[in-house]
Amino acid sequence: MLDQSLQFLTPEESAEVDRALLSSPEKFLARLTISTAKLLRVIAADAETPIEALTAVQITQWFEKDAKLKREQGVNASVLKWQAEELD
Q1: Is 49:56 a contact under the CB 8 Å cutoff?
Q2: What digits encode the pLDDT tens for the residues 9-43?
Q3: pTM strictly above 0.90
Q4: Closest CA to 31 of 42, 40, 18, 44
């Protein structure tokens, strides 16, 4: 399925954003966009469809599937490694 070592934003990419002449909100958005582009590639590959053809339904279903894997098999079985408790 997916290389579990996938990073959605590497330290090098983060440093590149830091060097950019952007405000803090713009840097946040740049990091978010880079990470999102990588995640969309994963979702598209899993759905066997081009990124530009992905629908909101397919993206939502992918998140549901990944969350189910996390609940049933543990965080290491999922693509997204964070846990809700970490966000509190």
Answers
A1: no
A2: 899 999 999 999 999 999 999 999 999 999 999 99
A3: no
A4: 18
pLDDT in tens, 29-87: 999 999 999 999 999 999 999 999 999 999 999 999 999 998 899 888 888 886 665 44
- Tokens standing for 20? 């950019």
Residues with Cβ within 8 Å of 4's Cβ and at least 6 positions away in sequence, in order, are 76
The letter for the amino acid at 15 is: A
Two tokens, residue 87? 């966000």
With residue 28 as reference, give the H or E element that holds it.
helix 24-47
Burial of 69 (0-12, 13-18, 19+ CB in 10 A): middle
Alpha carbon distance 79, 87 (integer Å): 17
